[in-house]
Amino acid sequence: MSSRRQFLSRASALVAFAALVGTALAPAGLRAQEAAPTVFAAASLTNAFQDIGKLYKEKTGKDVTFSFAASSALAKQLEAGAPAAIFASADNKWMDYAEGRDLTLKATRVTPIGNSLVLIAPADKAKDVTIDKSFDWLAFLGADGKIATGLTDSVPIGIYAKTALTTLGQWDKLRERIVGAESVRAALALVERGEAAAGIVYSTDAAIAKNVKVIATFPADSHPPVEYPFEIVKGQDTPATKAFFDFLTGPEAKAVYAKYGFVVK
């Protein structure tokens, strides 16, 4: 009887363990399939993507989670293992970075939208100017005026700004006047609060800002085209991810991009 009890006890323990493992693993698999895709997106896409997420929810009943920051920060987060299903960058450099580290699926790359680079100033001090090689930036800024933009060595808007100013022959004169922020939205806020005399941002961000005005657009040939490549993250090409990725480039999403002033391709 003792041996029989021990056998039954062991058998019961094995059944219980199997049930426990099945309970732990099966729901996890279901959760992986049902979980809302997380989208890492450039800060300048915030308003458009939030609207698109709402449209998707209305159409499908399914949620999408967003994380907005500078493309450089998001690419580094992906590299560090942060969970995301889609990466939407504000420039090709950081998407190339993600691809080069085998973080994203190159075959899924699409570039559905673009933007333009503009100069803004506080609305109460704004006067239209023309940006060319003869523009006197120091006279425009005054004795101690600063220009807010993204960090010029990493944040896309800052990289575009540095390239444009270099092309125009102004970078060496202005580098000490540049205030680099962690994202285009942070740079925009500095101008909105009057903490910077001017800012170099995307036209779409300027369009939704308070207390600022666009006073000039940078010549298109002063910097590379402002483009937004999207890719699915490696290992995340699930049906849920693919469905939302397709929606991001569909007609309803394109209408949202156009509403916010993006160049739809």
TrEMBL record:
**Signal peptide (residue range):** 1-26
Record bears the keyword Lipid biosynthesis? no
Q: Output the superkingdom of the source species.
A: Bacteria
Q: InterPro entries in the record, alphabetically?
A: ModA, ModA/WtpA, TAT_signal
> Does the record bear Disulfide bond in its keywords?
no
State the Pfam families in the record: SBP_bac_11 (PF13531)
For this UniProt record, the keywords arranged alphabetically read as follows: Metal-binding, Signal
Q: Which PROSITE patterns does this chain map to?
A: TAT
Q: Which family does it belong to?
A: Belongs to the bacterial solute-binding protein ModA family.
Supply the name of the protein.
Molybdate ABC transporter substrate-binding protein
> What is the source species?
Ancylobacter koreensis
Gene that specifies this protein: modA
